[in-house]
User: Fold this.
Amino acid sequence: MLIIPAIDLKDGHCVRLKQGNMNASTVFSEDPGAMAKHWLDQGCERLHLVDLNGAFAGKPVNEMAIKSIVDAIGGEIPIQLGGGIRDLDTIERYLDNGIDYVILGTAAVKNPGFLHEACYAFPGQVIVGLDAKEGKVAVDGWSKLTGHDVIDLAKKYEDYGVSSIVYTDIGRDGMMTGVNIEATVALAQALLIPVIASGGVTNLEDVRKLCEVESEGIIGTITGRAIYEGSLDFAAAQALANELSSNAR
Amino acid sequence: MKKIDIAVVDYGMGNLKSVSKAIEHVAPNKSVLVTSNPDEIDAADHVVFPGQGAMPECMYELDARGLHEAVINAAENKPFLGICIGLQMLFDHSEEGDIKGLGLFQGHVKKFALEHKVDAMGQKFKVPHMGWNQVYQSEQPHPMWNEISTGERFYFVHSYYVSPVDNNCIVGFGEYPERFTCAVARDNIIAVQFHPEKSAQAGLQLLSNFVNWKP
Assistant:
């Protein structure tokens, strides 16, 4: 299982939010490129980037910061990026410039036709991020809660050719209260494509619990606050995951 | 014993809900049973042998649960599908732990050695091979590929690959970056390296082809 560090970008800096609240942000670094290099040096095998300003604006905002990350670690490990990606040109630009996977969130929900086109144009490189509060999907930087059920939407997308689903539990994100295992497993079991967990990973126990259910198709977990604040030692987490992994064969 | 159409072998190393659900999906009128009981495996019409964990532990657990014979028996007598490590275990030997396999296919299981290799975009080839990749079918047609085009993508997560002695058993290959065998078949056995239960429609079609297969 991949332990995937997250770098969330707000105004060019690496931050962590609580439950997606832009007003509850803590800056962890003013040098995103150095942050990315740090995780690479710790042994990370994939990086998760979020353009937070972009998610709210509906278009890329932190392109300079993203470029500095690609310059720092591009080619070494795959990078997945989400936040404000709403058209094919933006996807193409990112994929041409060192990003390996784009993550569509709002665009997938509001414009499924676009998602379908994107999957066709860029096979294997489009991930959908479904962020949910109590099973219902939220969009626009999590500012709006829709009535859509996570599993129903995800099942629709797997027919389009989506590479995987990143499932974030909004209530747990940045709160360090543990991963929502039941909901993540329920989603993974219902789907015919892989799932990446996100939200609430706090310590090695959470990593262990996720590895126990890895064979349901949970290929990785994104972690943010825990590795920045130190409750989770990244290198130890990846080492544990490798030891327990049922899939890295 | 109640009729068992499809048995999914459980040797206690992980959850198998994804595999069994996908099979139930393509065989709604058949009974699908996840089991570690050799008698139930013997009684089933079709047997699925999924991958769970590292090969040395798998071989150990198979023996510890008395499943070694039941699996070999199933592979020799009824439609049998091996998935991921379930493919690797069918071979003679694996570099992983220097362990002996079930010997149903001649050949070895080797680790990807991809240091210093980069793709056209300058990206390193990582191990495990993880992600969607194209599967090319061999010239000789096989019912497992019905309604599936060559070059269709399937989902892979593996660090080891099989290297069969007999080329005739190779029915599918991938590239990472060099060609590697990802599907073998002979008699009533089909085995694939990728995860059909996580390969969307293409995977579902393959599972459907398997449950309807009468070799």
In short: The interface with chain B takes residues 2, 45, 74-78, 100, 123-124, 158-159, 161, 163, 185, 188-194, 212-217, 219, 246-249 of chain A (CB under 8 Å). Residues 135 and 183 of chain A are 8 Å apart (CA to CA). Chain A has eleven helices and twelve strands. Chain A has a mean pLDDT of 92.
